[in-house]
Design brief:
With 219 residues, this protein is of the alpha+beta class. The protein has helices spanning 7-40, 96-99, 111-117, 198-201, 212-218; strands at 43-47, 54-57, 66-70, 78-84, 90-94, 104-108, 121-124, 127-130, 142-144, 157-161, 164-168, 173-174, 179-181, 185-192.
């Protein structure tokens, strides 16, 4: 005996499942677009073409600019660390947005660069600090670096400064999406921007969130 199947009872639950999945993915897409828009429009102080600092949106930052990042600020692009508020040239970043680790990681500016860009220090809580100097805009080094790539933990480059060639490693690189911590400010030379940053090169389209049964049915 063959029992007829009502198509409504068969297709109805499937259509409801597809609809719920589509709505959820739509909300996720809207959330990502809003986050991207917020990041792209975040304001930063930038030195460009030998002029004094001006405030522009992240999306308008160009390779060769020098960006000033305050404590707690998110790094807007890949930066070569030039100078920090600390006389020793040390800065600390949190990479949780990249690898989920909350431990702070040290980065260090080259002493040869720090010497050219340092200003008078002030003492607070027993520690010496310096404020951003007009010397930052006078930076005249020439950076030679590799083409954009997705190797987050590698950065082999060289800096030509005052007839000297200095080796650059990942210890001088501040990656996009990292957050500056326990450091009043840093200034860095823009190396990669947008989708050419190391984080941008590792981006992938989000996977579909369909259930396995939905995928089998659609196939």
């Amino acid at each position: 005996m063959i029992t007829p199947v009502n198509p409504i009872t068969t297709l109805g639950p499937l259509l409801v499942a597809f609809l719920i999945t589509a709505i959820k993915e739509g909300f996720d897409d809207i959330k990502r677009h809003r986050q991207d828009a917020q990041f792209n429009n975040t304001k930063h102080k930038v030195y460009r073409d030998g002029a004094t600092a001006r405030t522009i949106a992240s999306k308008d930052i160009c390779v060769g600019d020098i960006v000033l990042v305050p404590n707690g600020g998110e790094i807007p692009c890949d930066l070569l660390l030039l100078v920090t508020s600390c006389r020793e040239g040390v800065a600390y970043i949190q990479t949780a947005n990249i690898d989920g680790e909350i431990d702070l990681k040290p980065r260090s500016a080259l002493p040869e660069v720090m010497e050219l860009m340092q200003d008078e220090t002030t003492t607070q809580d027993g520690q010496d600090y310096q404020e951003p100097s007009d010397r930052i805009v006078q930076f005249a080094g020439e950076l030679t670096c590799e083409a954009p790539n997705k190797h987050i933990y590698d950065f082999a480059s060289s800096l030509r400064l005052n007839d000297k060639t200095l080796s650059i490693s990942k210890d001088q690189l501040l990656l996009q999406s990292c957050v500056l911590k326990n450091t009043r400010w840093v200034a860095g030379l823009v190396v990669y921007t947008g989708n050419e940053t190391k984080v941008g090169m590792n981006k992938r389209d989000p996977p579909s969130k369909w259930a396995q049964v939905d995928q089998k049915i659609s196939d």
